[in-house]
Write a structure and sequence with these properties.
The relative contact order is 0.03. It is elongated, with a radius of gyration of 46 Å. With 997 residues, the protein is of the alpha/beta class. β17 and β18 form a beta hairpin.
Length: 997
């Protein structure tokens, strides 16, 4: 032990007694640790007290009235002493009862006899056996969470002892706009206003807090803590967590602290925060569900931003894990206390408010605090006064603390800080810090550091580069996994690149001793701070920017990718140089990163990279030019539209979409380009712009030699929606490419509302496709005159027009009946024939009389159609006319009549159909056989069998086949046997024919 005694006391009313006790103990030869800092206990972010307790053999507890307060610092010291199994001696300076945790320990009555109590204290300190005999250490009261809390307390103290270099007071400001306004508060305010009463004081933006605890209590224990990098968010959270753990150990009625790093939350699929918080200790879950927990959730920003839902298929969509986490916070049982931390910039980027009661933002250190903190460092204070950049850096608590720690090495550099960028100064601070920490460890007695400082920097730099890149893939059990997506979470395997498996634990332990890493669990570590990670990642990435061995596939980390994540403008010149590297992967990564840096100086070099021989480099340059959004890139990108690779052309098109109306005229100019891809892309981009000045050039493009360009022009004219394009589009319906015509038709549907008069003119167009479109337009008009025009279209010289008109008339249904009846008497034969066919399709019984009349038409085709339509109607009144039609001089009419008689199903047709089996026309005989099958009269079996008995092969096969089908339909044994025999004979004949061949 470094000390024999730790003196615990209240600074408010116990200082003089603690000072007297210290002097007398030291005079007696004991080494004493007493905290003499002039601090507010609520702002103590260090672990100095806990380290003092841990390094002391015993605790002398000076009991004064102020130590009885619930929030007394002394209570925390007692609990940590119990965590470290240190004996606590209650020294009653005043006659008050000791705390419940040590009430069974021996009381030393300093208030009644100082000398006697002091001698007894010395005796107990001197003799461990006497300590045990006197009962100065008793087993703590039963607490089911004691082991958990004590382990958590040790972890917190370990973190604070490593992370806090110097104590710096932090100021916080109310930030109400960061959280939703509470509806309950609104209702109360409305009530007070209506009653004419004064409502409780509201918390305005900009309100300052003396301590974090005050703000947390003000917002009912549900708070968002915001701050810039290095502002002290995690330190504040951990410090409050330490007090909360001590309070819970002292009083089981207090909320149970649960400390989690948000970066470890499973976001895909999202896990409930309750399940996640209790993943390593099931007994926490009932406490959270009952609302008895204090959830301390650090680093919402470290979840990272948008990522693929399926990393194997990034094109299938993304999600924002931070938004999913915020949604999950909504599901936390409302009675729990919740504290969430996040960087200011990252929280604003989420664009979704977290459902907590309030928010505060840690403030940069004021000039007054800088002057107060640096009162013992006048040279540092003078240096930052002379340099704005350095002074702004010093306003960040972490960096100011490191400046003070590393001052001896930084002195010269800081005096020259005016010649350095802010990042250079920051790097100098961190580099000096790491060197001094390494030197400090190496000076320890019997120290033998297993790794050199250079080796430490190489391994840590590589791990930092991986982390800043957003993670990499690694193979485990033959399966690829994605790791380290969250910022500042280092997996064990990330050190394997430079170390053997056996060396990893040793290396990480040393990095923790150097206060560079912080152990999260057996497999994972954190950098002490993201700024420290950024320093290591930047240095490593710049040094290895041209190391070809690091660059793998696109999903692997690389120095250039890490520089992209760091967004450090100092990388600009090295990245420009990397555009000339011999390895295309280096060039591509550099081109990609330059866009993300956002420096427009990169525009010209990126334009030059468009000519790179590798398509990946070209695509990366295109994407960066999109991000930079500079109009200088328009013409070079238009030139890329002629690239042989379709992916590169697509990328260029996509980028040009974002460059605005300044590309209008260049695009119009290239509509005459000799490359079809350029013309097609230019047409599509003009649609994105939506500028009416492009209408006339696009109309001219409807005559382009490429159908792809013509099709794109029609689609773009639809987007522009200008009626000037209607007439040219109608003429363009004459295009011989059906895809082009289809696009034109879709465009006209949007731009053109047809009228009877306009369609009448178009029906006279010389091109068939145009007339077909006009006919289709007539079908959409709810106008009886349109039907007359459709009937007139049945006389069109082109069959496609006639078919379209017939189809539309059939689709119209009842409104077309009367015009079609009249059309059966039309002077044009084709009109009469098609009208009969349409009436057959409609099947309306009202067409019976007109169709009967049509059976006497002078045209064979009309009579055929009329007979067929009468069969479809199924009206038995047609029996006699159809029997008469069986004697028609036209073979087709007789066929239609025979088929129609079969559909009527009238047995009177038996004899006429039997006679028709002997007709001289094969088609009539087939129709008669089929009709007899439909009648199903068994009397027809012999006649049909006779048609099968064609031993000489004189009966056409199709007639025989139709007779066989009819026999199967009738289905008598005799009929089926005849069919089988016929099939056997036909198979034999087929075999014989094959043999002859």
């Amino acid at each position: 032990m470094d000390y024999d005694v730790f003196i615990s006391y209240s600074r408010k009313d116990g200082n003089e007694y603690a000072e007297r006790l210290q002097k007398e103990l030291e005079a007696a030869g004991y080494k004493v640790w007493r905290d003499i800092r002039n601090i507010n206990p609520a702002q103590d972010f260090t672990a100095e007290i806990e380290m003092g307790i841990k390094n002391s053999g015993a605790i002398a507890l000076c009991l004064t009235p102020d130590t009885q307060r619930d929030n007394s610092f002394v209570r925390r010291e007692i609990q940590y002493a119990l965590v470290e199994n240190r004996p606590v001696f209650p020294c009653r300076i005043h006659p008050i009862t000791p705390h419940i945790s040590v009430i069974n320990n021996e009381w030393l009555e300093f208030h009644s006899d100082w000398k006697r109590a002091f001698d007894r204290l010395c005796a107990i300190i001197h003799d461990p056996n006497l300590q045990a005999a006197s009962g100065t250490y008793q087993k703590p009261l039963e607490n089911p969470f004691r082991d958990y809390l004590q382990a958590l307390y040790r972890q917190i103290v370990d973190y604070l002892s490593r992370a806090v270099i110097r104590l710096i007071d932090l100021e916080a400001e109310e930030t109400p706009a960061a959280v939703p306004r509470q509806r309950t508060d609104d209702m109360l305010l409305d009530f007070f206003d209506a009653a004419g009463l004064s409502a409780a004081e509201t918390i305005e933006a900009g309100h300052r807090y003396d301590s974090f605890a005050q703000a947390f209590e003000r917002h009912k224990g549900r708070l968002l803590l915001l701050g810039e990098p290095g502002a002290g968010k995690t330190i504040t959270l951990m410090s409050y967590a330490r007090d909360a753990v001590a309070a819970r150990l002292d009083d089981p009625r207090k909320p149970l602290p649960v400390l989690k790093t948000v970066a470890t939350w499973p976001s895909n699929p999202p896990l409930s925060i309750t399940e996640w918080a209790a993943e390593k200790l099931d007994s926490l879950k009932p406490e959270i569900n009952a609302g008895r927990a204090l959830l301390l959730l650090d680093g919402l920003d470290e979840l990272g931003s948008s990522r693929p839902i399926d990393p194997e298929k990034p094109e299938e969509g993304t999600y924002d894990p931070r938004k999913r986490f915020i949604d999950s916070v909504e599901q936390i049982p409302s009675r729990n206390q919740v504290l969430v931390t996040c960087r200011v910039k990252d929280y604003a980027a989420i664009d979704q408010q977290i459902p907590l009661e309030g928010a505060i933002t840690l403030q940069p250190l004021s000039d007054e605090l800088l002057r107060e903190y640096l009162s013992d460092y006048p040279r540092i204070y003078d240096a930052i006064q002379d340099d704005d950049n350095l002074r702004n850096l010093a306003r960040t608590p972490l960096l100011l603390s490191l400046i003070a720690f590393a001052w001896n090495e930084l002195d010269t550099d800081l005096q020259m800080a005016g010649d350095l960028q802010a990042g250079d100064v920051r790097d100098a601070i961190f580099a000096a810090y790491i060197r001094q920490r390494y030197a400090h460890e190496s000076r320890k007695k019997n120290a033998h550091l297993p790794f050199t400082l250079d080796k430490m920097l190489e391994v840590l730099g590589h791990a930092a580069m991986i982390n800043a890149s957003g993670g990499h893939r690694y193979k485990e059990n033959s399966v690829f996994n994605i790791s380290s997506i969250a910022e500042n979470v280092l997996e064990r395997h990330e050190f394997i690149h430079h170390l053997s498996d056996d060396e990893v634990d040793v290396f990480c332990a040393l990095a923790c001793d150097l206060h560079i890493l912080y152990r999260r669990d057996n497999e994972r570590h954190n950098f002490l701070h993201l700024l420290l990670r950024d320093h290591l990642a930047y240095a490593y990435s710049i040094a290895h920017l041209h190391d070809h061995s690091i660059y793998g596939k696109t999903y692997y980390p690389s120095p250039a990718k890490a520089l992209s994540g760091l967004s450090d403008l100092r990388a600009f010149d090295p990245l420009i140089d990397a555009l000339e590297d011999t390895n295309y992967k280096v060039r591509s990564a550099a081109a990609e990163t330059l866009g993300k840096l956002g420096d427009v100086r990169a525009v010209e070099p990126l334009i030059s990279a468009l000519d790179d021989v590798d398509k990946q480099v070209c695509s990366s340059a295109i994407e960066s030019l999109r991000i930079l959004g500079d109009a200088r890139a328009i013409e070079p990108l238009i030139g890329v539209l002629a690239h042989k690779d379709p992916w590169v052309r697509w990328a260029a098109t996509n980028t040009l979409k974002h460059l605005g109306e300044s590309m209008l005229m260049p695009l119009i100019d290239v509509l005459q380009h000799d490359n079809v891809h350029v013309r097609e892309s230019a047409v599509q981009l003009l649609g994105v712009l939506g500028d009416s000045r492009a209408v006339d050039p696009l109309i001219n493009t409807l005559a382009d030699i490429s159908p792809d360009v013509r099709k794109a022009a029609a689609e773009t004219l639809e987007k522009l929606g200008d009626p000037r394009a209607v007439a040219p589009l109608i003429n363009a319906l004459a295009d011989d490419n059906w895809e082009v015509r289809w696009s034109i038709i879709r465009t006209l549907e949007q731009l053109y509302k047809p009228t009877l008069e306009s369609l009448l003119d178009i029906l006279r167009h010389e091109n068939t496709n145009v007339r077909v479109w006009a006919v289709n337009g007539l079908g959409k008009l709810e106008d009886t005159h349109a039907i007359e025009l459709l009937i007139q279209a049945l006389t069109d010289p082109d069959s496609e027009v006639r078919k379209s008109a017939a189809r539309i008339l059939g689709d119209l249904g009842e409104p077309a009946l009367l015009p079609l009846f009249n059309a059966l008497r039309h002077e044009n034969t084709e009109v009469r024939k098609i009208s009969a066919q349409i009436l057959e399709k409609l099947g309306d019984v009202r067409a019976f009389e007109p169709l009967i009349d049509a059976l006497a038409d002078g045209d064979d085709g009309v009579r055929r159609s009329a007979a067929s339509a009468l069969g479809k109607l199924g009206d038995v009144r047609a029996f006699e006319p159809l029997i008469d039609a069986l004697a028609d001089g036209d073979d087709g009419v007789r066929r239609s009549a025979a088929s129609a008689l079969g559909k009527l199903g009238d047995v009177r047709a038996f004899e006429p159909l039997i006679d028709a089996l002997a007709d001289g026309d094969d088609g009539v005989r087939r129709s008669a056989a089929s009709a007899l099958g439909e009648l199903g009269d068994v009397r027809a079996v012999p006649a049909l069998i006779e048609r099968l008995d064609d031993t000489a092969g004189q009966v056409p096969f199709r007639v025989c086949n139709e007779a066989a089908s009819a026999l199967k339909r009738i289905g008598t044994p005799e009929a089926m046997a005849a069919v089988r025999e016929w099939k056997r004979r036909e198979q034999w004949r087929w075999v014989q024919r094959m043999r002859k061949q």
